[in-house]
């Protein structure tokens, strides 16, 4: 039986180097990260040259249009580098790499990189309508070039860059059901106001409705006039000490069941669905790292193996449901919040064996581009 498998292909502008990769999304399983694997085809004209392959993490933390007088708001970190030609000692290769090398011939060489556990996830920050240039965020790309050493400045004509992503998928098991209770006392007034907040589960997939169970017990002499529930996205730019901010990505206000008079109670369920479609024009929203011609979504929750495992070049994303009770100008308000996890489900895996007669579906990219922001435009 013949199986088809997809391969991404990109050539250098001069056609001397051709990069082949089987996938562009590499999954962080918390316990480890999938290796970045590929094959490079080197032209005969480069047999007397040195060829290098690197994995670059590019972190943009400021607007490109604000850069002037040598000021740069982008940091490029090389997470892995190896000389691919002349080839080093024999290294272990995967079945796909073996199959590609067999098809491409003796001038094809395999490479493999393992990202460090603390490497940040691919995230981009949504720009405003009037903003141009590269968006802020974390991007990865594989770069191959010709040079005297791995720190040599590369030339555009003999350089290939192909964007990749480091992603996380939702765990298979749910955590504890989120629940919290908050109370508010009032000066010179007896009793208190109690707000109990419960979510139906801890882990949600993108596009799924979040059921928020609200229970209010008014043992005070105040009146609850309005209820507001919202989903807030938290973004922590680790590089900056005060780089944390929150943005509301879904909200609902209701006066149903209000006013809640002293001595009475109310229990109700409201539904919230945080989606990118309802936040298209909102600047500063964190999105999943983007590749051209692919639909993006709100950024997934960042899962860390340990709270202190934060890369300085990373952006940490979190989500929480917040409910506010409005009591009037003098009495103020009472609020409670619950964190939850928002992620994509793990895609189904087809366990197909690559046979000798397998056919590769090759996707080719433009040769005359080097900027990683444009590398995925196809012919």
Protein traits:
single chain; 379 residues; mainly beta; Immunoglobulin-like; 2 domains; 7-stranded mixed sheet; 1 helix; 21 strands; 3% helix; disordered C terminus
Task: Write up this protein.
The protein is built from one helix and 21 strands. By secondary structure, it is mostly beta strands. Strands 3, 5, 6, 8, 9, 10 and 18 form a seven-stranded mixed beta sheet that branches. It has two domains: 4-169 and 347-365, Sandwich (Immunoglobulin-like), CATH 2.60.40; 179-343, Immunoglobulin-like. The model is unreliable at 350-358 and 368-379 (pLDDT under 50).
Would you kindly provide a brief summary of this structure?
InterPro entries: Arrestin (IPR000698), Arrestin-like_C (IPR014752), Arrestin-like_N (IPR011021), Arrestin_C-like (IPR011022), Arrestin_CS (IPR017864), Arrestin_N (IPR014753), Ig_E-set (IPR014756). This protein is mostly beta strands.
Layout of SSEs?
Elements: E1 4-11, E2 17-21, E3 25-27, E4 36-42, E5 51-60, E6 74-85, H1 95-104, E7 108-113, E8 123-125, E9 137-146, E10 159-167, E11 179-186, E12 189-199, E13 203-205, E14 210-218, E15 226-237, E16 244-254, E17 265-272, E18 286-288, E19 315-326, E20 333-343, E21 359-365
Parallel strand pairs: 1-21, 3-10, 13-20
Antiparallel strand pairs: 1-2, 2-4, 4-7, 5-6, 5-9, 8-9, 8-18, 9-10, 11-12, 12-14, 14-17, 15-16, 15-19, 19-20
